[in-house]
Amino acid sequence: MRGATKSSVILDIGVLVFREGLECVLVLAAITAGLTGDQERYRRPVAIGAGIGFGATLITWSVAVRILADLAKKVSALALQAATGLLAIVVLLIVMNWFFHKLYWTGWISLHNRRKRSLLEETTKQSGRRNVLLGFALLGFSSFYREGVEVVLFLQSYRLRLGNEPVLYGVLLGSILSAAVAALTFVAHRRLPYKRMLVLTGALLAVVLFVMVGEQAQEMQLAHWLPTTSIPGLVDRIPSWAGLWFSIFPTVETLTGQTLALAVVLGSYFLAQRQLRSTIRI
């Protein structure tokens, strides 16, 4: 397993799945907030919609596996691994882009809240209870399925390089943690420090991104998509464990890619914080 141990890969996958699960819980919590008394019955279609979203995610996984299996017959394994690895990094950069994430999730949650209010207004009209139940089910479905698609796209690179077993264990780890948060949120009605949890998982994913970019750059070098420019002064100074655990290699391309990736993540974080402070002053 080049550039990573099995346990570190399982942890990487578990962190990402947990992060996506946490965001799903936040959206579902926003949808179900205030649904008490007579409106509490609308929680059930939201849960059913989320369950259907889970099933649709499994179908999407199957479709993605089949598509990549067909592509494997037409292109080299190394090129396919490099392409899926690049896709995984794009997904991770979207998840890790704090400025985009702030705007993205604010708009996404606001859209769901507006739709919820619209559905609740329809309950006072003669438009039919079925349409309202279907609308809440669709809210639950979209909340889960969007996160599921991101996870499916991200995991294809790991599956091609390492097989199904570490992917399965990583997904189980992330799912268990997500289920625990969901139970505390919806069953125990506990208010968790969601913002701190997002920041913590974000920091862990920054390490995952750093490692993935190094591995991906090396994959692209092996596939001859990128040149390999060695840095003579670092060849003997970088220990072997740095390449094994953190994919740090003495080439211009790998180190530049890792530096740029971290710069994007840190830059988006400070930009989001600056915008938040400006908003507070206003």
From TrEMBL:
InterPro entries: FTR1/Fip1/EfeU. It is a multi-pass membrane protein. Belongs to the oxidase-dependent Fe transporter (OFeT) (TC 9.A.10.1) family. The chain crosses the membrane at residues 16-35, 47-69, 75-100, 132-155, 167-188, 197-214, 255-272. It comes from the Bacteria. Keywords: Membrane, Transmembrane, Transmembrane helix. This is High-affinity iron transporter. One of its GO terms (cellular component) is high-affinity iron permease complex. Pfam families: FTR1. It is found in: Membrane. One of its GO terms (molecular function) is ferrous iron transmembrane transporter activity.
